[in-house]
Amino acid sequence: MSDLLPTSPLTSPVIKTGEPSLIQSTCAYCGVGCGVDIGVADGKATSLVGSAAHPSNYGRLCVKGSNLLNTIDLTGRLLSPEIAGEQVSWDKATDYVAEQFNDIIKKYGKDSVAFYVSGQLLTEDYYIANKLMKGYIGSGNIDTNSRLCMSSAVSAYKRAFGEDVVPCTYQDLEETDLLLLTGSNAAWTHPVLYQRIERAKKINPAMKVVVIDPRKTATCELADNFIQLKPGTDAAFFNGLLHFLSENQGLDTDYIAQHTEGFEQALTQATSWTVTKVAEFCQVSIEELTTVYQLFCSSEKAITFYSMGINQSSSGVDKCQTIINCHLASGKIGKAGSGPFSITGQPNAMGGREVGGLANQLAAHMDIDNPQHQDKVQRFWQSPTIANKQGAKAIDLFDKLASGEIKAVWIMATNPVVSLPNRAKITAALKKCELVVVSDCVEQNDTLAFADVKLPATPWLEKNGTVTNSERRISRQRNAVLPAGQAKHDWQIIQDVATKMGFSGFDFDDVSDVFKEHAQLTQFENDGERLLDLSGLSQLTAKEYNELAPIQWPVNDANPEGCARVYADGKFNTPSGKAKFIPVKPQLPLQKTSAEFPFVLNSGRLRDQWHTMTRTGKTNKLSKHTDKPYLYLHPTDAKALAVQNDDMLSITASTGQAIAHVKVDAKQRLGECFMPIHWNQNYASHGNVSDLYQSIVDPLSGQAESKQGAVALGKKTYKQYISVHTTSKITLSADFWVKSTTAYGDSYQVALDEPTIDALLLCQQISGLSGEWLTFIQDNQSYVVCLQAGKLAFLGYFSATWPEIEQSWLEHVFGSKTLEFATIQSLLLGISSDEFNQGKQVCSCYSVGEKTINEAIAQGCGSVEALGEKLQCGTKCGSCKPELASLISQYNADPIETAIVLAED
Ligand SMILES: Nc1nc2c(c(=O)[nH]1)N[C@H]1C(S)=C(S)[C@@H](COP(=O)(O)OP(=O)(O)OC[C@H]3O[C@@H](n4cnc5c(=O)[nH]c(N)nc54)[C@H](O)[C@@H]3O)O[C@H]1N2
Ligand SMILES: Nc1nc2c(c(=O)[nH]1)N[C@H]1C(S)=C(S)[C@@H](COP(=O)(O)OP(=O)(O)OC[C@H]3O[C@@H](n4cnc5c(=O)[nH]c(N)nc54)[C@H](O)[C@@H]3O)O[C@H]1N2
Ligand code: SF4
Ligand SMILES: [Mo]
């Protein structure tokens, strides 16, 4: 069968040092799963472009993907195993972990240990971790950061279809009449898909796009209609749509009768949701609602594209269910251009779902609490035992660490101290836990600070295996270079520990053997029970595996070349073969605002950063778009709090506190604010949003309510503000600081409650640099400069307000081989040259700033294309195109305001 499989033209299974080659792999970041072609020479990656042939991206890459090679240098890498901070051999480290796990299990039982893994593991890593925990240790205690990401979507698909199957494909996005994007900022988070949508809309101007979000995001640039709803009210919106369909001939009664069950109950529950009631509940106008409902009703085809604004909720499963209900009721599913499309975030969230990496799954889409499935999986594995009940889901898992019920945890490829809600609770749990093992690629992050054992894993570019993207497409992530230092592949590390624990099912010689076993398990006694069937890949040779081209599952006799469209026949995986409607009573968020905590706190992603910044934070290319964790706030709220742009706010919740600069932003709703998820203690003293969320979860999925917190805001002032720019690492202790990677080294914003008396001494102490130190003091300001061999090495500006300094000028000055006397004088007087001032960076590929763009718009560039022609911005990866369009609309709306801003700059 495997000779029917398409093979990839650009592969190099064996790394040959010295010989230039081209290796096709998959991007390390989001669930779009773009193909990349990596040029390799002398054992190093030398070039990277989007793979023209890859069906996810057809050659395109977003700004994160195109900067992959800027994040792979070895600085900050964890390169050897450590126990209690001491470097040890692999043998010693894996002996220790195996022994400790065995001892703890012997003393306290199998449920006293746990793994907390990640959608950033490859399928093979994930498979083997799950096999060890569920088939050999015999506990369900393996959960993953995907719990925080798409577990609500998984539960809803499973309830409705009987199996966790995404019923759409990317091409549907291009073939649809109507695209509802809800709870998704795809322009920033799934940029290549967004570009595909943009192109489809250009080709078919009749296609409509609707965005539903409490914030007016970059994604709205494509929207024909925007519903700026009250946070947490989506279930009411979709119940209202179901009711509207039934009142306006929008139902597909044949489809409902033949292929579904439970419609009447769902409709009864939705019936009270009239347009008037929904408008009031969601705080949107009746006209806007009716227009969108009418669009859905009259469109032959429609897709609802949903992500974290839906899933990360205490009623996330129900919200997904109301979306699925509308598609089933209108028959907009199982056909081109239609369906409820949950978009996954991480590169391999889907692979994790396939191998059963969540605590409430078994493996290969089999159920953990089904005795027949337990028996099947155990017989296939020939394992000594099998988990027969659900394990602890992420939040519970950390609660059990805190209570002492779980005594050992192995964390792989995730940074829970930053990403789980209620940071104080997570750190307390890790402190309490007897044994914390962490496999990571970096030597330092907020979670590694609690590790008893650190295990160095190979990162993207060094690791080798498969990932599955949001449309069920399996792609190879190929290793292009050899592992650095002593780093090992995650699957090998788990294999070594499992073998040392005394288990025999882990003697894989090659990663392809792991994949093959996984594929065989999907086939094992399947008989059409589960759509996840990789039987067509179950006999791959190592060579065929190496050459495997991207392919969508199922892959079996009926679909030897994979399958794009599922459920076309209306047959689902429930016992009756019919899809289920689920009646839903809309619930509001459980974290409620109060007099004490009056603001709703929303959180999410920025365009150029990835999660906890362990990779994207390393390059100045991706740090310039936004260099600090702003709190975005409506102008009226900013006025009431007496704050302006760049003032400081303390953000207090019942769980903790954060401090951030203010960004006044009319795109927020009144009384609501937004903070990015990325900053953590490696980059900021008080920038971690997880301090501000309670760990409240959806009762079915266990997914945390990470979008609607309740906080109090208060203006925060300091006695002294310092801007530090340095070519060397510094050691700093300050009341507030935030760090950003620059072209010359690091820049810091520092604030102190008590002003420094001796600015020069402080700079010398924190930098440890020797060189020619110069200082100038005037009024309350101090300027400190250090030159080394005539070159600028360090700069510190001290002031009673934030010192203003032009970053692009600094880059120029730090890059200069010798500094003229006049420049040194300017540095010491704190007068930066405006000549280089471009404003905030918008286009990261060509380093084009907002000021330059606004000037070009004022000179007549009236379209994104015209800007591209003049300035090149937006012409490479295209990630900034929505922002370019937004600047043009802002200018068109208010050219005078733009002119004033330009003049002030
Ligand atoms: N640049 C970048 N891209 C990424 C990532 C990254 O870190 N950086 N991470 C990847 C991962 S793992 C994920 S999960 C995805 C996430 O992708 P998205 O879900 O698109 O990203 P978020 O910014 O978390 O949230 C999406 C939107 O939900 C909105 N929202 C909040 N509350 C509500 C609500 O009640 N209703 C509705 N309708 N909307 C609401 C927010 O305002 C936000 O605009 O991104 C992936 N892509
Ligand atoms: N408030 C709030 N909280 C959120 C969210 C939100 O929107 N709001 N979003 C949630 C979502 S959707 C997600 S996905 C999570 C993400 O949160 P995390 O998963 O905690 O974030 P990452 O920074 O991706 O952590 C990955 C870690 O694995 C390491 N790593 C990278 N590659 C490998 C590898 O191949 N092997 C090993 N062993 N290690 C590797 C990295 O260095 C890094 O330390 O955050 C969640 N938390
Ligand atoms: S959209 Fe960007 S981050 Fe996502 S896979 Fe493609 S290149 Fe990578
Ligand atoms: Mo995610």
Automatic annotation (TrEMBL):
It is an enzyme of class 1 (oxidoreductase). GO terms for cellular component: membrane; oxidoreductase complex. This is Nitrate reductase. One of its GO terms (molecular function) is molybdopterin cofactor binding. PANTHER family: NADPH-FE(3+) OXIDOREDUCTASE SUBUNIT ALPHA (PTHR43105:SF9), RESPIRATORY NITRATE REDUCTASE (PTHR43105). Belongs to the prokaryotic molybdopterin-containing oxidoreductase family. NasA/NapA/NarB subfamily. SUPFAM superfamilies: ADC-like (SSF50692), Formate dehydrogenase/DMSO reductase, domains 1-3 (SSF53706). Its cofactor is Mo-bis(molybdopterin guanine dinucleotide); [4Fe-4S] cluster. It comes from Colwellia psychrerythraea (strain 34H / ATCC BAA-681). Keywords: 4Fe-4S, Iron, Iron-sulfur, Metal-binding, Molybdenum, Nitrate assimilation, Oxidoreductase.
